[in-house]
Design goal:
The complex is a heterodimer of chains A (269) and B (681). Chain A has 269 residues and is of the alpha+beta class. Helix content of chain A is 56%, strand content 12%. Chain B is globular and about 75 Å long. Classes of the chains: A alpha+beta (269), B alpha+beta (681). The interface between A and B is large, with 39 and 44 residues.
Chain lengths: 269, 681
């Protein structure tokens, strides 16, 4: 009985040993070079060099392929792909592009109008002002002249200022445009102007202005028809982002993220 | 290369479709913003038409990874990142913008860097693998890149494919020389160009923000590689399938003929040369590319396609050179004397390289009956290679990414012995010892925080701004948004600034900048209306000048004169010297603080030419000077705790130039008995 057990063990160990010994010929140690691969290698060699490779050269080309494959696999086995920034980024990028391109191409009318309705604030056109002004050049004692003119205006007398470079009457000007053309002091005064009333003098980079606001168009959102091409571009961009971010969100649920205590503060900020 | 050219000349006869002549129609039905302004008396719009992104081979090499779309976001006032990691932002958004990546090798560098592409395996590409991976975006790495590039260019870029390569035959059949190069991937190139086109069309918002499809035709002479670069700007949303590049031809005349051909297909475009200052006098030569004499046909071809010149940008200003204009006290402005691309820097011969001299040459050519090929308008632009320029002395990052991101590398502060590895090695770096230490010398210290294009257009749309360029109703600035109105005519002296409709009347009785006035029967001298306004965010104005150049009918000798016509702070021009008195504006070099309450918000004058001779062909253009402020190099120095470098200007007078108005006498083309002033030619 004991002998039988011993024989059984010996045979078992032998098989185990053989299996160990031969296991290195298993799939992950097998490099199969297909005919197609060789053919395409030879082809591109011939394209670059301008003739077919001689037997030595052909062998060299195939050797190169084999050696590269071996080095690649050994590198994988040694775990060299881990923690390599370039490989990481490359793989992440590949997946990112694949995901982004998986968005549908066609935008339906419904999607467009839904997107438009959900992003009304993005398409908001800010307040716009129509106004006229009387200008008094800084170089020519502008402020004092403007104050005198204001007093005359209050007595309903006619006044005359200097001709202004950008003209006398302005329509549809937003606060940003006013800041660009006149400076910040001038544009910030507009929020307090009353309709059809002369206000001032208000100082710009150029001198003093008496201003009468003629029309104030409240901020408004253009209709979808007016801005459809822009909405479609925005929607497409948003889709690219959302496909990726929803995919990431899904995956994130399976991951637990721990941030070292020291860095936590930076992350939360 | 010879092999290729031979092949081409043989096979050209049977060549079929040429993709540079295939038009890709991209109709865009964008509606103009109904609230946007329309002004029949025209508004001034400011823009930059010379901008490189990652698709330019050199910009990518300098570390730029931003796309054309990113560039347009920058123009609209958003913040984008510089390759060296800091934020870039404009003080105010711009009105129009054109991405102008180099046509040749467009998109290729990014594909070499990306090791998953097929072309990255091409011989020579390996030095570019992953160059812009974050760990490689360092100043030290940037410093070595120019050399890497120069070597690769020599060794690999022009290697043709073999006769057995189907791509070579494609190259021949489609008349596309580039395709026959080993290091060139046609698909990559086409998709980069498509990205440029699409980004411009996507970002265009008629009424509020205009974009142009464009690219740079980066060519040079074959004799000494002298700069002949120009940008091409398309009028509409349609563009050729591929840009026509220096690989197709290095001769600008071939570019113009190509532009003529696509114009026949309905695609209008114009080109504008730049950095004539670094062309070794070749940009405005008195002969054609192959050394043939000028002709009326040449002048017409050139003016049809190149009505504009970019006369100021980061690589210096090409108004005039102190050697060419010894009597102009303001000629020494951001002079950059190195030939473009010369390593180490070689001196660029001034005559033929500056616009004032070119205007004279044009008049002379016309007088000799060979037409005027140099009757162009002016714009400025930046030539930034990092998506955007700061356009201000106090907001400057030069333009070639990692290579000049650091003040030490661009020579504005000293560089210590240990830090020399951040200095770009351009075929040997030179250092010069000054009081505060060793400084880099080699050219970057002579670059400037310039420039902008101004266009007088009815509205902010492609059509309207493009037409302004065509009319030459444009002006150039060194970065400030100075506004310049300029009109000329024989009855302009009857106008008055107290008339509210003075601009309307000026359009009716005279011509705006870029226009022509012709001889009248009377002997009356022409007069000019000039009205300028300061930049809200810039310095006050100091003086306005008219620069006049003319050719004597009697002996063809040129004259040139600078007249101050309006002075700040109520000062009067001295009629004997034609100069304003000093307005007393000063800069404190330790803090960059400027004199308060000196200088004017606007300057204007109606001026009649006191030296008019009705027989002499002449041109007149306006130059407006701001009060002095600190130059960028001074800002760099004081921010780092140094004094300004001794051999550079501490301060600068930012300025604007209008396009000229030309006066043409009767029988201007009748050559007089020739007594050429040989020195000038």
């Amino acid at each position: 009985m004991l002998l039988k057990i011993a024989i059984f063990l010996v045979i078992g160990i032998l098989i185990f040993g053989l299996d160990l010994a031969f296991s290195k010929f298993k799939d992950d140690k097998l490099i199969y070079v297909s005919e197609e691969e060789i053919y395409s290698l030879m082809n591109s060699w011939a394209l670059q060099v301008g003739r077919n490779p001689n037997p030595d050269e052909a062998k060299g080309v195939i050797d190169n392929l084999i050696e590269e494959e071996i080095l690649y696999r050994e590198a994988l086995r040694l775990g060299l792909d881990a923690n390599d920034q370039i490989i990481k980024r490359r793989l992440a990028q590949k997946l990112m592009f694949l995901k982004q391109e998986s968005r549908g191409n066609k935008l339906t009318e419904l999607e467009i109008s839904e997107f438009y309705n959900n992003n009304l604030d993005k398409y908001l056109v800010p307040e716009q002002y129509d106004f006229t002004h009387v200008f008094f050049a800084k170089d020519d004692n502008g402020l004092a002249r403007a104050q005198m003119a204001k007093a005359l205006l209050e007595k309903s007398q006619e006044i005359k200022g200097d001709v202004f470079f950008l003209g006398k009457n302005f329509t549809n000007r937003s606060l940003n445009e006013l800041r660009k053309d006149f400076g910040v002091n001038f544009s910030s005064a507009f929020e307090k102007l009353k309709l059809n009333e002369w206000t001032g003098p208000i100082e710009s980079s150029y001198g003093s202005h008496l201003i009468k606001l003629v029309r104030l168009q409240a901020a408004r959102t253009p209709t979808l028809d007016e801005i459809k091409p822009r909405v479609m571009i925005d929607l497409d961009l948003e889709r690219k982002d959302s496909v990726l971010s929803s995919y990431l969100k899904e995956l994130k649920e399976d991951y637990e993220v721990i941030i070292s205590r020291g860095s936590k503060q930076i992350y939360n900020e | 290369m010879k092999k290729l050219i031979l092949l081409f000349s043989v096979i050209l006869l049977i060549s079929c479709s040429d993709e540079s002549l295939d038009i890709v129609q991209t109709p865009i039905d964008k509606i103009k913003d109904p609230n946007a302004d329309y002004n029949e008396l025209r508004n001034a719009y400011f823009g930059d038409t010379h901008v490189h992104t990652k698709h330019s081979f050199d910009a990518y090499l300098f570390g730029t990874t931003g796309s054309p779309s990113d560039a347009y976001r920058y123009a609209r006032g958003e913040t984008v990142k510089h390759p060296a990691g800091f934020d870039m932002k404009l003080v105010e958004p711009l009105d129009f913008y054109m991405v102008s990546d180099h046509g040749f090798f467009m998109g290729m560098m990014e594909a070499y860097a990306d090791t998953s592409t097929e072309i990255s395996n091409a011989p020579g590409a390996e030095v570019f693998h992953n160059i812009n991976a974050p760990e490689n975006l360092t100043l030290e790495n940037g410093a070595t890149r120019l050399n890497t590039f120069a070597q690769t260019l020599q060794n690999f870029f022009l290697n043709p494919r073999s006769y057995f390569d189907p791509e070579l035959w494609q190259a021949v059949l489609t008349n596309n020389l580039a395709r026959g190069l080993k290091i060139y991937d046609h698909d990559v190139h086409l998709s980069a160009w498509a990205d440029v086109v699409n980004a411009a069309n996507d970002a265009y918002e008629p009424g509020n923000f205009t974009t142009f499809i464009g690219y740079e035709f980066t060519t040079s002479t074959d004799v000494a590689n002298e700069n002949l670069h120009r940008n091409v700007m398309f009028k509409s949303s349609n563009a050729p399938k591929r840009p026509y590049t220096r690989i197709d031809s290095i001769n600008p005349e071939d570019l113009w003929n190509w532009m003529d051909k696509i114009r026949e297909q309905g695609i209008d475009s114009i080109a504008f040369p730049h950095n004539s200052n670094g062309s070794n006098g070749q940009m405005f030569e008195m002969e054609t590319f192959f050394g043939e004499p000028l002709s009326k046909e040449y002048a017409a071809l050139r003016m049809r396609n190149e009505p504009i010149v970019e006369m100021t940008q980061v690589k210096g200003t090409s108004d005039t050179h102190p050697l060419l204009s010894p009597n102009d006290e303001w000629a020494d402005f951001e002079i950059m004397e190195a030939r473009i691309g010369s390593i180490p820097p070689a001196f660029s011969f001034p005559a033929g390289g500056y616009v004032r001299d070119a205007y004279i040459r044009g008049l002379m050519s016309n007088q000799f009956g060979t037409g005027n090929p140099y009757k162009f308008g002016l714009i400025g632009a930046s030539d930034t290679h990092v998506l955007g320029a700061g356009l201000r002395e106090d907001n400057y990052w030069s333009k070639i990414g990692l290579v000049d991101a650091d003040p030490r590398a661009r020579g504005s502060i000293p560089v210590s012995e240990e830090d020399r590895n951040i200095v770009p090695n351009r075929g040997g770096v030179s250092f010069k010892e000054f009081e505060q230490g060793d400084y880099v010398i080699g050219g970057l210290e002579n670059w400037g925080a310039s420039g902008l294009a101004g266009a007088w257009a009815e509205e902010n749309t492609r059509e309207s701004i493009f037409n302004a360029f065509r009319r030459k109703e444009t002006f150039a600035t060194s970065g400030s948004r100075i506004l310049v109105r300029f009109f000329g005519g024989f009855d302009i002296d009857e106008l008055s600034f107290s008339d509210e409709n003075v601009i309307k009347s000026a359009y009716e009785t005279g011509v705006p900048m870029g226009g022509d006035i012709f001889a009248e029967k009377t002997d009356k001298a022409p007069s000019f209306l000039v009205w300028t306004q300061r930049d809200v965010n810039g310095a006050p104005l100091q003086r306005v000048q008219i620069i006049k150049g003319s050719i004597s009918r009697a002996d063809s000798s040129p004259t040139e004169k600078v007249y101050d016509i309006a002075c700040s702070d109520g000062l009067q021009v001295d009629p004997k010297t034609n100069r304003c008195p000093d307005n007393g504006a000063r800069v404190d070099i330790e803090t960059c603080a400027v004199s308060q309450n000196v200088g004017s918000a606007e300057l204007k004058a109606i001026w009649t030419d006191p030296d008019f001779n009705k027989d002499d062909s002449s041109f007149y253009y306006v130059r407006v000077l701001e009060n002095p402020t600190c130059r960028w190099s001074t800002w760099d120095a004081i921010r780092a705790g140094f004094k300004p470098r001794e051999d550079l200007h501490d301060t600068i007078q930012d300025r604007a130039w209008s396009s000229p108005i030309w006066y043409t006498p009767e029988n201007a083309e009748n050559p007089p008995p020739i007594r050429i002033n040989a020195e000038r030619l």
